[in-house]
C-alpha cells in the first residue's frame, strides 16, 4: 500500500518535468496523508496535460456518501479493472500522481518486541520525480457540487522494496505516460501490462524518524535519514 508520501516540488517544477500547460499553486509537503488535497496530472482532450487539485481517497460516482473514500486510498492494480469501485475509473479516468518520494513501514524486532520502522523511498537520481499511476472519480454532492477524488494503484515489490514491504505504488516510466493518460485508450490488457514494479535501479531508500507516524508532523526533517534500530 501507500499511506503517506512527499511532494516538495513546486508547480513550476511539475510544469517543466511533466510538460504541463497549466498547474495550480502547490506548497511543499513532506507528510501527505489520505483525505488531503493533492495535485494530479490528467490529459485535457484537445489541449494537453494539466495539473488539478483533487482529494486523495476515491469516491465512486455511485457512492451513497463520500465516507467510502476513507477506505479507498489505494487500489490493487491486479484487480482494479474488474472491481466495481475502480472499474469505470480504470477504463476512462486515469491520472498521474507526482511525488518526490513515499513512505512505507517495515516490521522490525527490537529487544524481543516488533515495531514499525518508517522508510522513505525516493528516486535514485537526484531531482527526479516519481509518477504514480492513479485513478480519478467524480461524485456529485447533494448540494450540486462535484467532488473529484483519486487513489494510487499498487503492485508487488521490487528488490528495493521487498525487505521493507510487500506492496509499492505503480511508478510509470515517462514513455508510458501518454498511453496511461489517454481516456480513449481502451486496451485494458495493454494498460494492465504497465502495472509492474519499476526497476530497482530507479529507487533508493533510507530509514526515517518514527515522528512521521503523526500526521501533524511536517517539514524537510520528515525525509532526513536516521539510524534504523
Order of helices and strands: EHEEEEHEEEEEEHHE
Number of helices: 4
Uncertain segments are: none
Percentage of residues in strands: 35-45%
Description:
This protein is mainly beta and 229 residues long. The chain is built from four helices and twelve strands. A hairpin with a 2-residue loop joins strand 7 and strand 8. It starts with a strand and ends in a 22-residue tail after the last strand.
Short description:
The chain is mainly β. The chain is 11% helix and 36% strand. The strands form 2 sheets. Strands 3, 4, 5, 6, 9, 10 and 11 form a 7-stranded mixed sheet that branches. The chain has a 5-stranded antiparallel sheet with strand order 2-1-7-8-12, with no helix packed on it.
Task: Please write out the topology.
Blueprint (H helix, E strand, L loop, with lengths): L3 E4 L3 H8 L10 E4 L4 E8 L3 E9 L17 E3 L10 H6 L1 E6 L1 E10 L2 E11 L6 E11 L5 E10 L12 E2 L7 H5 L6 H6 L9 E5 L22
Which key phrases capture this entry?
229 residues, mainly beta, 4 helices, 11% helix, single chain, seven-stranded mixed sheet
Amino acid at each position: 500500500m501507500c499511506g503517506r508520501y512527499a511532494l516538495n516540488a513546486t508547480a513550476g517544477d511539475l510544469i517543466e518535468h511533466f510538460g504541463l500547460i497549466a498547474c495550480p499553486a502547490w506548497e511543499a509537503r513532506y507528510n501527505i496523508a489520505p483525505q488531503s488535497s493533492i495535485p494530479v496530472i490528467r490529459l485535457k482532450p484537445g489541449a494537453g496535460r494539466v495539473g488539478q487539485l483533487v482529494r486523495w481517497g476515491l469516491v465512486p460516482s455511485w457512492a451513497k456518501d463520500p465516507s467510502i473514500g476513507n477506505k479507498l486510498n489505494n487500489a490493487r492494480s491486479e484487480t482494479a479493472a474488474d472491481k466495481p469501485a475502480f472499474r469505470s475509473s480504470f477504463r476512462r479516468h486515469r491520472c498521474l500522481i507526482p511525488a518526490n518520494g513515499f513512505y512505507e513501514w517495515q516490521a522490525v524486532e527490537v529487544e524481543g518486541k516488533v515495531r514499525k520502522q518508517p522508510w522513505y523511498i525516493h528516486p535514485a537520481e537526484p531531482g527526479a520525480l516519481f509518477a504514480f499511476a492513479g485513478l480519478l472519480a467524480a461524485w456529485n454532492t447533494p448540494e450540486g457540487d462535484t467532488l473529484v477524488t483519486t487513489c494510487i494503484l499498487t503492485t508487488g515489490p521490487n528488490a528495493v522494496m521487498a525487505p521493507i514491504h510487500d506492496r509499492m505504488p505503480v511508478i510509470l516510466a515517462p514513455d508510458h505516460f501518454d498511453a496511461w493518460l489517454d481516456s480513449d485508450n481502451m486496451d485494458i490488457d495493454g494498460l494492465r501490462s504497465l502495472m509492474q514494479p519499476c526497476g530497482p535501479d530507479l529507487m533508493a531508500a533510507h530509514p526515517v524518524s518514527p515522528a512521521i507516524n503523526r500526521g501533524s508532523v511536517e517539514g524537510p526533517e520528515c525525509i532526513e535519514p536516521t539510524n534504523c534500530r
